[in-house]
Automatic annotation (TrEMBL):
It holds the Pfam family Fn3-like. This is Beta-glucosidase. Signal peptide: none annotated. Belongs to the glycosyl hydrolase 3 family. It comes from the Bacteria. The keyword Heme does not apply. The chain crosses the membrane at residues 7-24.
Length: 777
């Protein structure tokens, strides 16, 4: 102890002058317990108070460069988003963390190095969710985990899995769906993929972080039931199924308490109920009280500020924070650290297998894009013989993802124009020339960023659409066989959108109008591609065009994936993970998003409660433009032999045979919904309970799918009982092709009500919530 105390002052001074690496190396190491060799408890016991306070606050002190252990390769810290503090005398190296959901966030430039570093831009999470194929989500995770590992990254700050609560949510592109089951299953597979590579995942942002407006301090007021059923459920699924190494708490408060300071959230729910045993880190600069964060077992505060370290050290000295608490936090961090590439000394190459990643990115994109409209088999079209009038800036420039921490420094993103040409289509050369010249005026997508810690990639410069006069459009309509128009919407971290951004602009609507008129006058077809990071208005213009393909933000291979589908080489099989409302005002959250007071909201009340997305539109019969789960194919499917078999303990097994009755090989997403009996609790009209995608079925081929539905899956959250309860009575179990189109259904009786899980009474709203329940027509 005496020795440790003498060291405190010494180390403190060393840190201040940024000399810690060299000073520590000079110390004889054998005197101290060594991380990875000696018991963890001994290593922690050998840490001074200041060292402990440094261990739990990331190492973002710009003057300190985390030094590798003697004899180990020095990693380049600017290549990643953040890192933990190293303690060389104890053999503890820094652990490296990097964003993010759609690709590894690697800084393009490093000082003194002429090379530019890239990572693959994969399709955004909303597109991955549209595939409804967990095996593809796992493959994306594997590919991203591989890139992270090869860049020396230990923990990938992904997946982001908040709920699409409102169509204006700025980070929607990073999130999967409006449904917690789809979110949880896709994110689970992705985490398993990442972690299969020896890289940790960090599921974020835990929890109820469903808006960007006032994101650092917004107080989310939400009922216990909506929290459990909608906002926590996806996280629960991932924690229990995929065992993520880490969880990132969110910026917001839930019912008055910052999530990183909530013991109820991070201890009672996350660890005790769900069995999480990794470490929790804050979102960058999240929370306002480091000591409370420690007590809530938000183990690591990122990216690390000296004032946090000092506050924690003071609290340890004056008894406001017990040594047991911080020791537990450190143990949580170091237990995860033991699994990392850095600690295992993985010989990373900085040369990931990009060819493999490209193949995965392209395949996932084409298997997940959603065909929203296809009048009279407008698509597919024959490559080679078809010429296309290609309109819209973003037909010639692919916007592969959103902005902010989820942006990826990719080398090249394949545009629709490139993809179509490579597939053998001819493009109208006049349009192509004008658009490419116009786009050259835009700023580059990304600036040179030396450090990802401070430098955010700037928003893409959005050039206004080229103004075409009618003669030019008519000429193109005469000279080409069909038109394709791309509509783009950028989404990004740090801000929500405005309703004007949800609606199409006057210029876009006029382009759709005039191109449709001119091509239809020539009896030629028009297809719209939606290169968007979230939901946009479609109801007012969808009747004017013949086809709509929702490409979302499809990663760097997006243009190839579009060509794969347009040419009919592959059949679309994506389905919407989120409802497209008719008008923004129809969204259940529109009345209270993004909170009050208007202008600078400090609180938002989730008055729509459990009625999020299709749970609302279906229950209250609000018409939508495209419903949850909807998506067309070039081929057709029939569903036969639907059966419900009673299993043990109140379980049901559903069987259904899907047959490809059309002319193209294709895959079909099968959705299982349930309607609960009316009992003590009110319920949405129906809820998604399971889903699967068939294998590729050739025309005439069939596949029988099987779904196990347990009472836990049929349960709702009973606030009074603080329990998940499957109420007795008759359940309607349905097979559907979208939330509002049922193709087979049957009854299933649960003889007795069952408490399927008892939980803690936590996160109780401090004020009454006036739940909005519109009258059913
Ligand atoms: C974002 C996180 C991200 C972190 C580190 C924050 O602003 O909300 O999603 O992981 O920055 O870049």
């Amino acid at each position: 102890m005496q020795k440790n105390n003498q060291n405190i002052g010494f180390y403190f001074i060393a840190i201040m002058f940024g000399l810690i690496g060299t000073m520590q190396e000079a110390l004889p190491q054998q005197k101290y317990p060594q991380f990875g060799i000696d018991p963890l408890k001994d290593v922690i016991a050998a840490m001074t108070i200041d060292e402990k306070a440094l261990m739990v606050t990331g190492a973002k002190r710009r003057e300190v460069y985390p030094t590798a252990l003697p004899g180990k390769k020095q990693k380049n810290i600017v290549a990643v988003g953040g890192y933990t503090y190293p303690f060389l005398r104890l053999g503890i190296p820094p652990i490296y963390l990097s964003d993010g959901p759609a690709g590894v966030r690697i800084a393009p430039r490093r000082s003194g190095d002429s090379q530019t570093y890239y990572a693959t831009a994969f399709p955004v999470a909303t597109l991955v969710a549209s595939g409804w194929d967990t095996s593809l989500s796992r493959e994306i995770g594997e590919a991203m985990g591989h890139e992270a590992l090869e860049y020396g990254v230990d923990i990938l700050l992904a997946p982001a899995m908040n709920i699409h609560r409102d169509p204006l949510g700025g980070r929607s592109f990073e999130y999967y769906s409006e449904d917690p089951l789809l979110t949880g299953k896709m994110a689970s597979a992705y985490v398993q993929g990442i972690q299969s590579q020896g890289v940790g995942a960090s599921i974020k942002h835990f929890a109820a972080n469903n808006q960007e407006t006032s994101r650092r301090y917004i107080n989310t007021i939400v009922s216990e039931r909506a929290l459990r059923e909608i906002y926590l459920e996806g996280f629960r699924i991932v924690v229990q199924e995929a065992k993520p190494w880490t969880v990132m708490s969110s910026y917001n408060k839930i019912n008055g308490v910052y999530t990183p300071q909530s013991r109820e959230l991070l201890v009672d729910i996350l660890r005790k109920e769900w069995g999480f045993n990794g470490f929790v880190l804050t979102d960058w600069y999240g929370g306002d009280d480091p000591v409370e964060q420690m007590k809530a077992h938000n183990d690591l505060l990122m990216p690390g500020l000296q004032v946090w370290t000092d506050t924690i050290a003071d609290a340890l000295r004056n008894g406001n924070l017990s040594m047991d608490v911080i020791d537990q936090n450190i143990e949580n961090i170091l237990n995860v650290a033991l699994k990392t590439g850095t600690v295992k000394d993985y010989p990373y190459t900085e040369k990931p297998d990009f060819e493999k990643s490209k193949e995965v990115a392209r395949r996932v994109a084409r298997e997940s894009m959603v065909l929203l409209k296809n009048e009279q088999h407008t698509l597919p079209i024959q490559a080679g013989s078809t010429s296309i009038g290609l309109f819209g800036n973003y037909s010639y420039k692919n916007l592969p993802g959103g902005t902010g921490s989820g942006a990826v420094n990719y080398e090249h993103a394949v545009s629709v124009a490139e993809g179509l040409k490579e597939a053998g289509f001819k493009l109208d050369p006049v349009l192509e020339k004008k658009y490419t010249t116009h786009l050259d005026k835009g700023k580059p997508l990304r600036d040179k960023a030396d450090s990802l810690i401070t430098a955010m990639p700037p928003r893409d410069s959005i050039l206004s659409e080229l103004a075409w006069d009618n003669h030019e459009i008519e000429r193109s309509a005469k000279e080409t066989d069909m038109a394709i128009i791309t509509i783009m919407r950028i989404f990004g971290e740090g801000g929500d959108r405005h309703v004007d951004h949800f609606n199409l602009t006057t210029e876009e609507l006029s382009l759709i109008d005039r191109v449709s008129d001119a091509y239809h006058a020539q009896r030629k077809k028009v297809v719209v591609l939606l290169n968007v990071g979230g939901v946009v208005e479609t109801a007012s213009w969808k009747d004017k065009v013949d086809g709509i393909l929702l490409t979302w933000q499809s990663g760097q291979e997006g243009g190839h994936a579009v060509a794969d589908l347009v040419s009919g080489k592959f059949t679309p099989s994506g389905k919407l993970p989120t409802t497209f409302p008719v008008r923004y005002a129809d969204a259940p959250s529109a009345k209270n998003f993004p909170g009050t007071p208007i202008g600078n909201p400090t609180e938002v009340v989730y008055e729509e409660d459990i009625y999020v997305g299709y749970r609302y539109y279906d229950t209250f019969r609000v018409p939508t433009s495209f419903s949850f789960g909807f998506g067309l194919s070039y081929t057709s499917f029939t569903y036969t032999n639907f059966k419900i078999e009673k299993g043990k303990g109140g379980s049901a097994t559903l069987l259904v045979t899907v047959e490809n009755t059309g002319r193209y090989p294709g895959k079909e997403v099968v959705q299982v919904y349930a309607t609960a009996p009316s009992g003590k609790l009110e319920h949405p009209e129906k809820e998604l309970k399971a889903f699967a995608k068939t294998r590729l079925l050739q025309p005439g081929e069939r596949e029988t799918l099987r779904f196990e539905i347990t009472p836990r899956m049929l349960s709702s959250f009973d606030t009074g009982a603080s329990a998940w309860v499957a109420e007795k009575g008759v359940y309607d179990l349905m097979i559907a092709v979208s939330s509002d189109t049922i193709v087979a259904n049957g009854k299933f009786r649960l003889a007795k009500s069952q408490i399927t899980e008892k939980v803690s009474k936590s996160l109780i709203p401090q004020v009454p919530i006036n739940i909005l329940r519109p009258v059913k027509p």
